[in-house]
Amino acid sequence: MDQTVAPFLMFEGAAEEAVAFYVSVIPGSRIVELRRHGPEGPGPNGTVMLGRALLGGMEVLFSDSYVKHAFTFTPSLSLFVTCRSEAEIERVAASLGDAGKVLMPLGEYGFSRKFAWVSDRFGVSWQINLP
Protein backbone atom coordinates (compact mmCIF):
# COMPACT_ATOMS: atom_id res chain seq x y z
CA MET A 1 0.00 0.00 0.00
CA ASP A 2 1.34 3.41 -0.99
CA GLN A 3 1.17 6.07 1.70
CA THR A 4 1.16 9.76 0.91
CA VAL A 5 1.10 12.99 2.86
CA ALA A 6 -0.69 16.06 1.53
CA PRO A 7 -1.78 19.39 3.01
CA PHE A 8 -5.51 19.59 3.76
CA LEU A 9 -7.32 22.94 3.65
CA MET A 10 -10.65 23.13 5.48
CA PHE A 11 -12.93 26.04 4.63
CA GLU A 12 -16.38 27.03 5.84
CA GLY A 13 -18.18 27.39 2.51
CA ALA A 14 -15.49 28.94 0.28
CA ALA A 15 -13.44 25.85 -0.66
CA GLU A 16 -14.23 25.83 -4.38
CA GLU A 17 -13.84 29.60 -4.72
CA ALA A 18 -10.50 29.58 -2.86
CA VAL A 19 -9.00 26.66 -4.77
CA ALA A 20 -10.17 28.02 -8.14
CA PHE A 21 -8.42 31.27 -7.18
CA TYR A 22 -5.19 29.42 -6.25
CA VAL A 23 -5.29 27.48 -9.54
CA SER A 24 -5.58 30.78 -11.42
CA VAL A 25 -2.60 32.30 -9.57
CA ILE A 26 -0.07 29.44 -9.19
CA PRO A 27 1.45 28.23 -12.50
CA GLY A 28 1.11 24.51 -13.22
CA SER A 29 -2.07 24.10 -11.15
CA ARG A 30 -5.43 22.42 -11.69
CA ILE A 31 -8.37 20.94 -9.81
CA VAL A 32 -8.16 17.15 -10.12
CA GLU A 33 -11.30 16.04 -8.29
CA LEU A 34 -14.33 17.75 -6.77
CA ARG A 35 -17.00 15.81 -4.86
CA ARG A 36 -19.98 17.69 -3.49
CA HIS A 37 -22.50 17.03 -0.75
CA GLY A 38 -25.88 16.11 -2.20
CA PRO A 39 -29.35 16.95 -0.92
CA GLU A 40 -29.07 14.04 1.54
CA GLY A 41 -26.10 15.72 3.28
CA PRO A 42 -24.45 15.49 5.64
CA GLY A 43 -23.20 18.95 4.58
CA PRO A 44 -25.23 21.61 2.76
CA ASN A 45 -26.18 20.61 -0.78
CA GLY A 46 -23.52 21.61 -3.32
CA THR A 47 -20.71 22.35 -0.85
CA VAL A 48 -17.38 20.58 -1.28
CA MET A 49 -17.24 17.24 0.50
CA LEU A 50 -13.71 16.54 -0.75
CA GLY A 51 -11.54 17.98 -3.46
CA ARG A 52 -8.05 17.38 -4.74
CA ALA A 53 -5.96 19.94 -6.57
CA LEU A 54 -2.44 20.13 -7.88
CA LEU A 55 -0.96 23.49 -6.88
CA GLY A 56 2.33 23.91 -8.69
CA GLY A 57 2.55 20.11 -8.88
CA MET A 58 1.84 19.48 -5.16
CA GLU A 59 -1.34 17.65 -4.24
CA VAL A 60 -3.57 19.59 -1.84
CA LEU A 61 -6.83 18.25 -0.41
CA PHE A 62 -9.68 20.60 0.49
CA SER A 63 -13.24 20.64 1.78
CA ASP A 64 -16.03 22.77 3.24
CA SER A 65 -16.67 21.92 6.87
CA TYR A 66 -20.34 21.93 7.81
CA VAL A 67 -19.29 21.79 11.48
CA LYS A 68 -18.42 25.19 12.98
CA HIS A 69 -15.04 25.19 14.70
CA ALA A 70 -13.41 27.65 17.10
CA PHE A 71 -10.39 27.88 14.79
CA THR A 72 -9.42 28.75 11.25
CA PHE A 73 -6.10 28.96 9.42
CA THR A 74 -2.96 30.12 11.21
CA PRO A 75 0.09 31.70 9.53
CA SER A 76 2.36 29.30 11.44
CA LEU A 77 1.60 26.70 8.75
CA SER A 78 2.04 28.06 5.26
CA LEU A 79 2.29 26.97 1.65
CA PHE A 80 5.70 27.83 0.15
CA VAL A 81 5.79 28.95 -3.49
CA THR A 82 9.07 29.11 -5.42
CA CYS A 83 8.80 31.53 -8.35
CA ARG A 84 10.92 31.55 -11.51
CA SER A 85 11.06 35.27 -12.31
CA GLU A 86 10.61 38.78 -10.95
CA ALA A 87 7.38 39.15 -12.91
CA GLU A 88 6.00 35.90 -11.52
CA ILE A 89 6.77 36.69 -7.86
CA GLU A 90 5.29 40.17 -8.19
CA ARG A 91 2.09 38.78 -9.75
CA VAL A 92 1.73 35.89 -7.27
CA ALA A 93 2.46 38.04 -4.20
CA ALA A 94 0.06 40.78 -5.35
CA SER A 95 -2.71 38.30 -6.22
CA LEU A 96 -2.49 36.27 -3.01
CA GLY A 97 -2.10 39.38 -0.84
CA ASP A 98 -5.05 41.21 -2.41
CA ALA A 99 -7.80 41.60 0.22
CA GLY A 100 -5.65 39.60 2.64
CA LYS A 101 -2.93 40.55 5.09
CA VAL A 102 0.74 41.17 4.33
CA LEU A 103 2.88 39.51 6.99
CA MET A 104 6.21 40.38 5.28
CA PRO A 105 6.06 42.73 2.26
CA LEU A 106 7.75 41.72 -0.98
CA GLY A 107 11.42 42.57 -0.56
CA GLU A 108 15.00 41.42 -0.17
CA TYR A 109 15.67 39.82 3.20
CA GLY A 110 19.15 38.36 2.61
CA PHE A 111 18.11 34.71 2.18
CA SER A 112 16.77 35.11 -1.38
CA ARG A 113 16.48 37.70 -4.15
CA LYS A 114 12.85 38.47 -3.24
CA PHE A 115 10.43 37.11 -0.68
CA ALA A 116 6.94 37.85 0.63
CA TRP A 117 4.68 36.28 3.25
CA VAL A 118 0.94 36.90 3.02
CA SER A 119 -2.27 35.58 4.48
CA ASP A 120 -4.81 35.55 1.65
CA ARG A 121 -8.45 36.66 1.75
CA PHE A 122 -9.46 33.12 2.79
CA GLY A 123 -6.97 33.07 5.70
CA VAL A 124 -4.42 30.69 4.13
CA SER A 125 -0.77 31.65 4.72
CA TRP A 126 1.68 31.74 1.77
CA GLN A 127 5.46 32.25 1.68
CA ILE A 128 6.48 33.39 -1.81
CA ASN A 129 10.13 33.16 -2.79
CA LEU A 130 12.41 34.05 -5.70
CA PRO A 131 15.70 32.21 -5.01
From TrEMBL:
Q: Name one Pfam family in it.
A: 3-dmu-9_3-mt
**Record-annotated PhnB-like domain positions:** 4-128
Q: What is this protein called?
A: VOC family protein
